[in-house]
Design brief:
The chain is α+β, with helices and mostly antiparallel strands and 582 residues long. Helix content is 38%, strand content 19%.
């Protein structure tokens, strides 16, 4: 046993980066514990309909789930359908079609269940203000993303801005067997090897010895007990711009490698326009931290943001108090109280508040205590509190679904809905589009650039359904800027373009020189999202006409257009006609 301890001390504890990693982790973890964790716990309880600061202790405990309603409504309105990501070139020499990149990201979003992960992150963003998406290169040859609760992540708290962060990391609970089974490819030999080392020194830690993760805390909070497993291992993953280090149970370094989130300048074989093999120099990618912060109300001097529940927590408890008071008042009115003449106190057990009861006591010995109903004051107070909560979080009636059953909305109506939701809702969209999801998309593309060194086929969705396009890494060099548009924003833009297309159609259809067939095709594509092949399948094919002078077959003139002799245009059955020239 003494020999094993000596080996462990020199082989594990003496590793160069152990002390640095644990020092940075402990400092960040202690900071979150002292400054944020209790508040985050209270906000989570309010979201799960559990009181934390009752002002009125009544006989009943009523919880009005307005906070839950607001968070879910805003979450659905913010995320909606899958976001639209479009990569834009950043240099004049970047001529490749970026549609391949856009379709590749759509495919990764679907394959990696990013809708679910982004939904969890946005829910945390609204509840406690912060969540994080860590991206890695997955074992199946595609990027993969891990959702991390703010309580389980740690950062460089000395810097408030994302771009100034020097390191990041997170912790998770796993088993020793899972660590032993994980394999990676050795870049030098191309063979699959075990990812982690020194596992023989890892001793399983009980749940009591571990600092509580977000999962463990919620189990104790809502289920009354934490799930315990003797085989659990806590793993701390640390990443800076030089190293990636994993530490098991805060004592054993099981991974210490050069950061995989960078690429040196390299040369690969590509293909030119003539199909010839040509060497292409791939520029370097600077080291980056592979996480995207999903944050709500951001202070430029603080790394951790505030959530919506922090703003409405006191209002939620006031709403609960008023609801409880009203319910207690109704209880006192329905369950009447009485006074009994002390001379008949020995017969109190004979008196029951029930229909048809007979009391053998003199009239007047039992009298009802008069109670006054609260009236509409409590209901008005509740509605005022709800209104204040909705206005404070931009979750007004329109965002929560009210007034949206009138059919297809115009662009003006969609813009009015977002405008009436308040500027804070717009800031939520912008915060996600220009920080969290934009950084995530940029990290995913960097991982593709680092790990894909040869041509691959990319699944795309075209007019005929699933199509396959070629991604050539030699054509997409340098940085491409991702532009992200969430559903709420995309809906407004889409409806505005549809209205513009309809107005253009009304104007162009009145002009005799406009090709009405092409106008119909373009309008159907713009307004009804039809592809060109679907629309052309509806058109009546024009048959050649015979020239009476020569007897030859000639192409018919376009509908709405005069022929060469200046005669009236030919009407083709089934085709829309413009006004006839006089």
């Amino acid at each position: 046993m003494a020999k094993q301890t000596a080996v462990k001390k020199t082989k594990i504890k003496g590793q160069e980066n152990f002390d640095k990693v644990m020092k940075r982790f402990n400092r960040s973890n202690t900071y979150v514990k002292d400054k944020y964790r209790d508040d985050w716990s209270d906000y989570t309880k309010l979201y799960y309909n559990e009181r934390v600061n009752a002002g009125y202790a009544g006989n009943s405990e009523i919880f009005m789930p307005e906070t839950f309603t607001i968070v879910q409504a805003v979450k659905a309105h913010v995320l909606g359908d899958d976001p639209k990501v479009k990569f834009m070139p950043t240099r004049a020499d970047q001529k490749a079609d970026t549609n391949v990149l856009n379709q590749m990201l759509d495919f990764i979003w679907t394959q990696d269940s990013m809708g679910l992960k982004a939904g969890l992150a946005i829910e945390d963003m609204l509840t406690i203000g912060n969540a994080y998406l860590f991206s890695f290169w997955g074992p199946d040859g595609y990027p993969t993303t891990r959702y991390v609760h703010a309580q389980d992540a740690f950062f460089d708290i000395a810097n408030g801005l994302y771009q100034d962060q020097r390191f990041c990391g997170y912790r998770y609970i796993t088993s020793k067997k899972d660590l032993e089974d994980e394999m990676i490819m050795d870049p030098e030999t191309g063979e699959m090897v075990k990812r982690y080392k020194n596992l023989e020194w890892v001793e399983s830690a009980s749940a009591e010895q571990q600092d509580k993760t977000a999962k463990a805390e919620k189990e104790e909070m809502f289920l009354g007990a934490q799930f315990k497993d003797e085989d659990t291992v806590e793993v701390i993953v640390y990443i800076d711009k030089e190293r990636m280090v994993s530490i098991a149970n805060r004592s054993v370094v099981i991974e210490d490698i050069e950061t995989p989130f960078k690429r040196d300048t390299m040369t690969i074989q590509s293909v030119d326009d003539m199909g010839n093999q040509v060497p292409v120099e791939i520029p370097a990618i600077k080291p980056f931290l592979p996480y995207a912060p999903i944050r709500n109300y951001v202070d430029g001097n603080l790394f951790y943001a505030r959530g919506d529940i922090q703003i409405i927590a006191d209002l939620q408890e006031r709403l609960n108090d008023v609801s409880t008071q009203k319910f207690d008042n109704l209880t006192y009115i329905l369950d009447r109280m009485y006074t009994l003449d002390p001379a008949y106190a020995d017969r109190v057990d004979e008196i029951q508040n029930m229909p048809g009861a007979v009391f053998t006591i003199p009239k007047g010995a039992l009298e009802e205590i008069t109670t006054t109903p609260i009236g509409n004051d409590a209901d008005k107070e509740k509605e005022d509190i709800k209104d204040a909560m909705r206005r404070a979080t931009a979750a007004d009636e329109l965002v929560q679904g009210g007034g949206q059953d009138q059919g297809m909305l115009t662009a003006t109506e969609v813009r009015a809905q977002i405008s009436q939701s308040g500027t804070r809702f717009k800031l939520k969209l912008r915060q996600l589009e220009e920080e969290g999801l934009k950084i995530w998309a940029g990290n995913i593309f960097k991982l593709i650039q680092i790990n894909v060194n040869q041509e691959i086929m990319v699944r795309t969705i075209g007019p005929e359904g699933v199509e396959w396009q070629n991604y050539n890494p030699g054509e997409y060099l340098g940085e491409y800027e991702p532009k992200v548009m969430l559903e709420a924003h995309a809906a407004a833009v889409s409806e505005e373009r549809k209205q513009e297309a309809m107005q253009f159609h009304l104007m162009a259809s009145q002009q005799p020189w406009v090709d009405q067939q092409k106008l119909f095709v373009e309008t159907a594509k713009a307004v009804f999202n039809k592809n060109e092949n679907e629309v052309k399948g509806l058109l009546v094919q024009q048959q050649p006409l015979m020239d009476p002078a020569t007897g030859e077959m000639v192409e018919p003139p376009m509908p709405g257009m005069p022929n060469e002799s200046g005669q009236e245009p030919v009407n083709v059955p089934g085709m829309p006609q413009g006004p006839q020239p006089k």
